[in-house]
Structure formats: structure tokens, C-alpha cells
Amino acid sequence: MPFVVTESCIKCKYTDCVEVCPVDCFHEGPNMLVIDPDECIDCTLCEPECPVEAIMSDEDVPDDMQAFIELNAELSKDWPVINETKPAPDDADDWKDKTGKLELLER
């Protein structure tokens, strides 16, 4: 049961989660993070660190966000590993509560 980064991360990209990951399974894209499901060991350390609650178990992903399970697997193959906290985008707080952001995902 790997963890998944969902829509709330798009354009927020807080990186609080990456430093607690013991296996470096986070990957960084232009405006979102993803988790490599093959590397994730389900330790749950990252989930409470996310200030926008974008991280959840793949079993808990709501029906309207199921596409993010596959997106995490796909994009983690192409994006580089991130294992150090970076500043969030200046406008991250403006985006944290918005929905319907999938079309804004930059690959």
C-alpha cells in the first residue's frame, strides 16, 4: 500500500515531507511532487508532514483522484529524486485550498 501525492500538491509543492522519508521515494516536478510506489515502504512518516494533506495511502485515494495513483508511478520514473526541503513557491498558500488543478500539472 504505497502512499500517493494527490492534487493538493499541484502549485503548492511544499517539501516538508521529503526530509522525513527514509528511502528517498519523492520525486520533484516543475510544480508538484510524486512518490515512487516501488520505493515507498509505507512508513507513514510523510503523511502528517504535508501542510495541505496531499499525501495519502493509495487505498484512501478518493474516486475522483484515482488518476493520481498512476500519475505518481509514471512521473516518478522521469522526475529527479528530492530529499531536501526547499522553499515553497511564493504563491503556494494561494493554491492550497483550490480544487480542479490537474490541468495545471506541469510535466
How would the blueprint of this fold be written?
Layout: E1 3-5, E2 26-28, E3 33-35, E4 55-57, H1 67-76, H2 92-95
Describe the protein in words:
The protein has 107 residues and is largely without helices or strands. The chain has a single domain (3-85), classed as Alpha-Beta Plaits (2-Layer Sandwich). Helices cover 13% and strands 11% of the residues. It has two helices and four strands. It has helices at 67-76, 92-95; strands spanning 3-5, 26-28, 33-35, 55-57. The strands form two sheets. The protein has a two-stranded antiparallel sheet with strand order 1-4. Strand 2 and strand 3 (33-35) form a beta hairpin.
Short account of what is shown:
This protein has 107 residues and is largely without helices or strands. It has a single domain, classed as Alpha-Beta Plaits, CATH 3.30.70.
Relevant terms:
4 strands, little secondary structure, two-stranded antiparallel ribbon, 2 helices, 107 residues, Alpha-Beta Plaits
Q: What is the CATH architecture descriptor? A: 2-Layer Sandwich
Total domain units: 1
- Give me the strand/helix succession: EEEEHH
Tell me the fraction of residues in β-strands, as a range. Answer: 5-15%
| Structural class determined from secondary elements | little secondary structure
Q: The CATH topology is what?
A: Alpha-Beta Plaits
Tell me about the biggest sheet?
A: 2 strands, antiparallel
Write down the Rg: 12 Å
Compute the separation of the termini in Å: 25 Å
Instruction: Give the helix tally.
Output: 2
Shape: globular
**Strands ordered across the widest β-sheet:** 1-4
Poorly predicted regions:
none
Task: Estimate percent helicity.
Answer: 10-25%
Q: What does the average pLDDT come to?
A: 97
Q: Compute the number of strand runs.
A: 4
Give the class-level CATH name. Alpha Beta
